[in-house]
Write a structure and sequence with these properties.
The complex is a heterodimer of chains A (256) and B (247).
Chain A: H1 5-8, E1 20-25, H2 32-43, E2 49-55, H3 60-68, E3 76-80, H4 85-89, H5 94-106, E4 112-116, E5 133-139, H6 146-149, H7 152-156, E6 159-163, H8 175-185, E7 190-193, H9 199-217, E8 232-235, E9 242-245
Chain B: H1 12-19, H2 34-39, H3 46-83, H4 93-106, H5 111-131, H6 136-142, H7 148-158, H8 163-185, H9 190-212, H10 228-238
Classes of the chains: A alpha/beta (256), B mainly alpha (247).
Bound molecules: guanosine-5'-triphosphate and magnesium ion (MG).
Guanosine-5'-triphosphate binds next to α2 of chain A.
Chain lengths: 256, 247
């Protein structure tokens, strides 16, 4: 099977009828929920939007978004991930998949469903069986070096957001340099510097989502898997040397 | 064209697949009431964990396993009828399972537990559609919403497993889910949690035999044992603010 679950579950033609499923991943506190709130504010007049949040525990993110008042609250649903947010977007997507399908059914027709991953580490990315496209959110406060560290989300998510650029002067980060490093790490894939205090940056982010939505609608977008792991280094048995490999060939992910 | 897989000892791989905690059907986010039992001080260590698991398998575990066996039997019968080219085939399965579902719901006082079992059942059925496309005609006839033990019984039959397999699977799951969650919730030796499971193995087997004997029974005659504190704990858990597990 080459098609994914997300594409076969509700459509057969090249023109998808269901919503664009857009994942938002990234480490804890980088601004995933805020990004979703900004997107809802920017796009709610044009698109019928639904949101699924994943928390490490409880449903705090859903409550935050409901309190922001950016969407009717029944269109924001929480999935509890049993303290393993990574698993819920990658190894065992069933909870999320069902939540997305339910939301699409209950508020049919929706144009976009945003899925927020629980904050995790740099290797947590969405499986393409759950989302059609994904944003990976970093922030400048995590340090200017993070973008260079790479990893599947930074390197290969459909869009990398470098958030909270308003804070750069306070944390000694050169935003231009960080964006340039990120662009290098991503071999030219899209990177945006964003601050919710700079409306023009939020507008560019909204435009990226508009473009993704129309590409998706026209059947021109194929979900990409950033992969569970970036190429990385294993020390060999003798402790001398080692080798670099990636898991792109379908080898199961493992812990180091 | 529907082919009923032949039941027998050669289906053990399917049984292992269904009972594997890594099956992507959403179960990992649940502690089967253990988180609340710990929060209330009912479970504190390996000894009280063992007691908790034993109480669970002998009460709601046996009830769930009996319903799984009954669902397996009804599904397998419908599959045979379908294979034999009977006019009705799989068609009556939905109503038969809905009848079982009502009986199980009636044995589950806590609304939270009913909702959780329904969600877990839906997830299992949803996952199996993707995992085993050949089961689709059976799952279509069964319907997308079933309490988890009934979903297990149906899926077991669709994979060619027996009523005894379905009962054993549900009982093992009833004990293993909280046992595995314990290491995230308590300061407890992870070997001790599995030691509890090994200690329960003979009882799990014996209970599975008893449950399997209900496979052909009328739904009204299935066991109705209760564990009232589990119902109370499930309700309390829905208002527990910093929970790690959904249940
Ligand atoms: N200065 C500034 N702060 C921001 C910006 N975006 C988000 N924040 C703040 O960053 C903090 C975390 O934001 P969230 O949106 O909750 O981050 P998150 O990634 O959803 O967090 P988790 O879900 O807990 O992983 C909050 O205090 C936000 O107010 C921004 O553009 N500028
Ligand atoms: Mg958040």
């Amino acid at each position: 099977m080459t098609t994914t679950d997300a594409t076969t579950s509700t459509t057969t033609s090249a023109q998808p009828r269901r919503a664009l499923r857009l994942g938002v991943a990234g480490p804890v506190g980088t601004g995933k929920s805020s990004t979703i709130a900004s997107l809802c504010r920017a796009l709610a007049d044009e698109f019928r939007i639904g949101v699924i949040t994943n928390d490490i525990y409880t449903d705090e993110d859903a409550r935050f978004l409901r309190a922001e008042g950016v969407l009717p609250e029944e269109r924001i649903r929480a999935v509890e991930t049993g303290a393993c947010p990574h698993t819920a977007i990658r190894d065992d997507v069933t909870m999320n998949l069902l939540a997305v399908e339910d939301l699409e059914r209950d508020f049919d027709p929706l144009d976009i469903v945003l899925v927020e991953s629980g904050g995790d580490n740099l290797t947590a990315t969405f499986s393409p069986s759950l989302v059609d496209a994904q944003l990976f959110v970093l922030d400048v406060a995590g340090g200017g070096d993070v973008a260079r560290k790479g990893g599947p989300g930074i390197g290969r998510a459909d869009l990398l957001v470098v958030n909270k650029i308003d804070l750069a002067p306070y944390v000694d980060v050169d935003v231009e340099q960080m964006l340039a490093d990120a662009t290098d790490a991503r071999e030219g894939r899209a990177v945006l510097g964003v601050s919710r205090k700079q409306p023009e940056t939020v507008e560019v982010l909204g435009q990226w989502v508009r473009d993704m939505h129309s590409t998706f609608r026209e059947g021109g977008h194929t979900p990409q898997d950033p992969g569970p792991m970036a190429p990385h280094f294993h020390a060999d048995e003798s402790g001398e040397g080692g080798y670099v490999h990636s898991h792109d060939d379908g080898e199961p992910a493992h812990q180091h | 064209m529907l082919t009923t897989p032949t039941p027998g000892p050669d289906r053990s791989a399917a049984l292992l697949l269904l009972s594997d905690g890594r099956l992507p059907a959403g179960g990992y986010a649940h502690s089967a009431g253990l988180e609340q039992a710990i929060a209330r001080g009912w479970v504190r260590d390996a000894t009280t964990l063992g007691d908790y698991l034993r109480g669970r398998i002998h009460t709601t575990g046996l009830v769930s396993a009996s319903f799984a066996a009954a669902a397996q039997h009804r599904t397998a019968s419908a599959m045979e009828a379908g294979d034999a080219g009977g006019t009705e085939g799989l068609a009556p399965l939905g109503a038969a399972l809905a009848g079982l579902d009502r009986e199980l719901v009636a044995r589950t006082p806590s609304p939270a537990l009913r909702r959780i079992a329904r969600d877990l059942g839906r997830m299992l059925l949803r996952a199996m559609r993707s995992i085993a496309p050949s089961t689709q005609p059976v799952l279509d006839a069964a319907g997308p919403v079933l309490q988890q033990p009934i979903a297990y019984g149906t899926v077991a039959a669709a994979l060619g497993l027996t009523a005894r397999d379905a009962a054993g699977l549900v009982l093992y799951e009833a004990a293993a889910t909280p046992a595995v969650a314990a290491v995230k919730l308590l300061s407890i030796d992870p070997f001790a949690t599995h030691r509890c499971l090994v200690g329960l193995a003979p009882e799990l087997d014996e209970l599975a035999e008893r449950a399997a004997a209900f496979a052909t029974a009328d739904a009204r005659d299935l066991p109705a044992l209760a564990a009232p504190l589990s119902d109370i704990a499930a309700e309390l858990h829905t208002n527990h603010d910093q929970r790690l597990f959904a249940s």
